[in-house]
Every structure is written in structure tokens, then in C-alpha cells.
Design brief:
alpha+beta; 5-stranded mixed sheet
Length: 432
């Protein structure tokens, strides 16, 4: 048995914890540079705000319907996620943190009523952290995720499912007839991993509901579509095919890209941005214990502006795989100088680390350039530790500019709330 604990409208819920006046109000959280909606309250959804809707298209709702828009505060959301996940782990002995607001729990060997346990953990998260969540329980991970969707829908749309399935839904306790009724009432695109393209193909084959999909012959599904969809069908039929991932898989590529808050034209400003992006990517690289053999850098203008357009990228191979920030930044800056062209208003840039390999592999060759051969692993470890303790950017490459300077390329975050749990200066003060 598995459970999926998922925070409801997570980013919006995090904001409401510290601003209770937003409860019951239509709220959206905007992406980087306040570009589009990446989280919506149920009230905002009722206004017809779609996921990913550009802010300039829905801005009028602020005046006509009281829509509140907030800039993303990812440091706050990450800290609130850690708190929620620590409580969700109380459901069972093994936990897989699937995303910032979702975690799977293995319920094998857990005694007693699982629904009762789910309600208690849900209430504890709401009381201690302030995040409303729903719990889905099933005999497979796919069924648990489907149960979570049913629990959320039954809560926010009364009448769509039986009220007994709201907040905590355990599909394993339903009778066969009741389970079929629920699956028949659920569209096939609500199944984990069924995207828009695959949904269209399934509907062409008269597969419209989850029940239709669960009744397919797995071998036929494998021959007609893929082994991935076959695995999904078997999971819907109650056969576990997807195990918990107790450690995240190493990424095959690591990227750090940003749209600029204002158009950037000078090479100096671009160098600061690329240094920052390369440094962040190198930190992530060391975090997963990998080395990179190639550094890709790209720049581009905005396709939505009438100015002259320019887009270019280049891949710079390293002499030997490295996780050294100074080596990666140097390669990125050489790449930037090669593709930079003056006279363009650049809107976005980024750094990608390619050809990744474990840092346990050792490559040796003639020492043709002693500077690059210096082992700076202890230096990188010390730098990461200082930035972890005192805040990101405490120690950085000189080409990133002076800390605290207002940079031309920084993102727009005009509606960002304070770091209530991550910054001492932003901790709320209650006065009697």
C-alpha cells in the first residue's frame, strides 16, 4: 500500500499561512519576472485563470474581481516544504519526496485504519505548518496519485465524487462496484503520466475514462503504445510496477537559465549574469557528486519585442571533467565572449552543464596546463559550506560583481513577500 500526500495549491497556501487575509480571495503566484501564473487558488481557478496564463492577459481581474498576484518566493516555499514533508513522513516507515509539494509514503506493515491515520497526519500538517493537503491511498503509486486527485476534487467540487472520498481517499477499501463507478467518473487524462498527446490517441481508441484504460489488455497496450503505458495499466489493475525512489537519480544535464528583468546590452552585465548562472550550476553539480565535461552557454533576445533579433549558443569542452566553479565559470565566459554581439537587447541567457559523469571516475593525462590541474575540491567544499551557513552569494567569483549591487539583469519580483522563515530580518513580529 502507498499514500501520496500533496499540498493543496501549495505556493498559494504558503503565502496564506502568513497573510490570513488572503484566505477566500482569488490569488495567483507568478513565475520569474512576474511573467505568468504558476499557482492558483481555487477562487482564481473559478475566475477562469488557467495555469501558465500570462499576467498581462489576466491583470484586468485585479480591478474587476479582486485578483491578488504575488511574485514567487521559492526560498519560503522550499522551507515550508521541508516542514510539511517531515510531518508527512509520520504516515509510514519509508518516504519518497516526489516534488516540492508531493511525497509518496510506503504503508507496508502499518497497522490500523489507514484512512484514520491519513486524517490525523493531515490535521497535524494543517495545525503545525498551516498547509492544507489531501491524502490518496492505493495499492500502487499510480492508484495512490489517482486517489489524491479524487480526494482534492471531492473537497473543492462537492458532488463530483462521494463526500466520503474528500480530503483522504483510500481506493483499497471501496467495493469493486464502487471503485468502478469512481474510475468511470474520472477522465483518462487525470492518470499519472497521461499527457495531452497520449490522451488524444487514447480517445481515438474509445478510451475516455480511467475505467476504460484499466480494462485494456496490458500486452496489447505494450504492442500498440509503449511499455511505459503498459506499466501504467498494470498499476491501475493493482499490480505494483513502480517502486519508491529513496534517492533522487542523478541528472544527466544541469541548467541555470533566467529571463532578465530588463534588456541587457553590455558585455559586462552579461558576464556578471553568466558567472552567477555558471556558479549555481556548479554548486548543483557538486551536490549530486558529478563532474561535467562540456559547458553550454546561450543568449537570446525576446521574440515579443520589435527590436532586431539575435540568438546563439556554443558548447565549450573542458580539458578534463571538473566540478570546480572557477574552471566552469572560465569556460562559460570564454563561450560568452565568442557569441556576444553588440547592438542587441538581450532578454535571456543561460548555462548548461553537459556530459556529466560521477566524480568517482578519474581521468589522467599529461599535465599540459598546471593551473587547471590544481585540486580545488577542499576549496569548493569550504565555499559551499560558507554559502550554506551565511547565505547564497556570501562567497562568489569576482566576475559576478559586488554583493548587494543592483544588477541590470536581475529578475522582476515587484510583488514578492518577505522570507518569513528563511531571513532573520523578515521574521514576523507580534506585538501585544
Amino acid at each position: 500500500m502507498y499514500a501520496l500526500v500533496d499540498g493543496n495549491n501549495f505556493y498559494v497556501s504558503c503565502e496564506r499561512v502568513f497573510r490570513p487575509s488572503l484566505v477566500g480571495q482569488p490569488v495567483v503566484v507568478l513565475s520569474n519576472n512576474d511573467g505568468c501564473a504558476i499557482a492558483r487558488s481555487n477562487e482564481a481557478k473559478a475566475l477562469g485563470v488557467a495555469m501558465g496564463a500570462p499576467w498581462f492577459e489576466i491583470e484586468h481581474l485585479a480591478d474587476s474581481s479582486g485578483l491578488v498576484a504575488l511574485s514567487a518566493n521559492f526560498s519560503l516555499y522550499g522551507d515550508m516544504s521541508d516542514r510539511m514533508m517531515s510531518l508527512a513522513a509520520g504516515l509510514g516507515p519509508v518516504q519518497e519526496i516526489y516534488s516540492i509539494d508531493e511525497s509518496f509514503i510506503d504503508l507496508s506493515g502499518v497497522r490500523g485504519c489507514l484512512m484514520t491515520r491519513g486524517f490525523k497526519v493531515r490535521e497535524r500538517i494543517l495545525q503545525w505548518v498551516g498547509i492544507p493537503c489531501c491524502v490518496g491511498i492505493g495499492s500502487t503509486k499510480t492508484l495512490a496519485k489517482l486517489a489524491n486527485h479524487i480526494a482534492k476534487t471531492a473537497e473543492c467540487k462537492p458532488g463530483s465524487y462521494p463526500a466520503t472520498l474528500a480530503q483522504v481517499c483510500d481506493l483499497s477499501v471501496l467495493t469493486p462496484a464502487a471503485l468502478e463507478e469512481v474510475l468511470a467518473a474520472t477522465a483518462v487524462n487525470e492518470v499519472w503520466g497521461i499527457g495531452q498527446h497520449l490522451t488524444a490517441q487514447l480517445k481515438e481508441s474509445a478510451v475516455h475514462t480511467v475505467l476504460d484504460l484499466a480494462r485494456l489488455e496490458p500486452s496489447m497496450v505494450r504492442s500498440r503504445w509503449s511499455v511505459v503505458l503498459e506499466r501504467t495499466v498494470r498499476e491501475l489493475q493493482g499490480m505494483p510496477c513502480i517502486a519508491l525512489e529513496l534517492a533522487p537519480a542523478r541528472k544527466q544535464e544541469i541548467a541555470c537559465t533566467r529571463s532578465f528583468g530588463h534588456p541587457v546590452t553590455s558585455l559586462a552585465d552579461l558576464s556578471e549574469a553568466v558567472t552567477e548562472f555558471a556558479s549555481r550550476a556548479a554548486h548543483k553539480l557538486r551536490g549530486q557528486g558529478s563532474l561535467t565535461g562540456q559547458v553550454l552557454v546561450f543568449v537570446r533576445t525576446s521574440p515579443f519585442r520589435p527590436e532586431p533579433q539575435y540568438s546563439n549558443s556554443i558548447i565549450m569542452p573542458l580539458r578534463r571533467p571538473s566540478a570546480d566553479t572557477s574552471v566552469i565559470v572560465a569556460a562559460a565566459l570564454r563561450s560568452l565572449h565568442a557569441i556576444y554581439r553588440s547592438g542587441y537587447q538581450l532578454d535571456k541567457a543561460g548555462v548548461m552543464l553537459l556530459d556529466l559523469q560521477p566524480n568517482t571516475l578519474l581521468q589522467t593525462e599529461l599535465d599540459l596546463q598546471r593551473d587547471e590541474a590544481i585540486d580545488r575540491r577542499r576549496l569548493m567544499t569550504a565555499m559551499d559550506a560558507l554559502n550554506q551557513r551565511y547565505g547564497r552569494g556570501t562567497v562568489q567569483m569576482a566576475s559576478a560583481g559586488l554583493p548587494g549591487d543592483r544588477r541590470a539583469w536581475t529578475m522582476k519580483q515587484e510583488r514578492r513577500t518577505p522570507g518569513y522563515t528563511t531571513c532573520w530580518a523578515d521574521i514576523p513580529v507580534v506585538r501585544a
